[in-house]
Amino acid sequence: MKSPRHTTRNLGLPILPTLVVMVVAAAVLVPALSSASEEIIVGEVIIEATALRPQVLMTAPERRVTFINRSGRTVHVDFITRNPDRHHAFQVADRIWAEFHSLGRHPYEVHFNEPGMADLHGAVEIVGDPYGGPDPRICNLVTVMGVCIER
């Protein structure tokens, strides 16, 4: 007869090997799940010659979004603000970052410095507000590379 501390009664499975399998599975799955959620929260936008990946990035307020240029060309990211007459274009040789402070959709365009290449259109969607509203003394819309582009 087997000792009760080494076998489960209902399934007849050994407890120790079952526990080892469960611990190993958790050790493999937890880092994968946390890195996937970190990618969604922090976020990267990849600029390619013909597409943005993702075209709409969903993230939380005050989280850094990195725009990475993998197009092989010189590009400018133009953040579209509430005043459509004002342009906030930033050259992206390799990468730039931005923090979005207010909820909602923040559209932007990517312009190529080569004739015949179509502009790309994307957005950063800010959802949830775990920290309260933006502090207007700091910046209430978008900060790009440490510069507030609209208060």
- Could you spell the SSE succession in H and E letters? HEEEEEEEEEEE
Give the biggest sheet. 6 strands, mixed
Strand order of the largest sheet: 2-1-4-7-10-11
| CATH H-level superfamily title of the largest domain | Cupredoxins -  blue copper proteins
**How far is the N terminus from the C terminus?**
76 Å
Question: Rounded to an integer, what's the Rg over CA atoms?
Answer: 23 Å
Shape: globular
How many helices? The count is: 1
- Total individual domains: 2
Low-confidence stretches: 28-40
> Which class of the largest domain in CATH terms?
Mainly Beta
Percentage beta strand: 35-45%
Structural class: alpha+beta
Mean pLDDT: 78
Annotated CATH architecture of the largest domain: Sandwich
Fraction of residues in H or I helices: 10-25%
Looking at the structure, the CATH topology of the largest domain is: Immunoglobulin-like
Count of β-strands: 11
Description of the structure:
The structure is a single chain. The chain is α+β, with helices and mostly antiparallel strands. The protein has two domains: 1-42; 43-148, Cupredoxins -  blue copper proteins (Immunoglobulin-like, Sandwich). Helices cover 19% and strands 36% of the residues. It has one helix and eleven strands; from the N terminus they run αβββββββββββ. The strands form two sheets. Strands 2-1-4-7-10-11 form a six-stranded mixed β-sheet. Strands 3-9-8-5-6 form a five-stranded mixed β-sheet. The protein is globular and about 70 Å long.
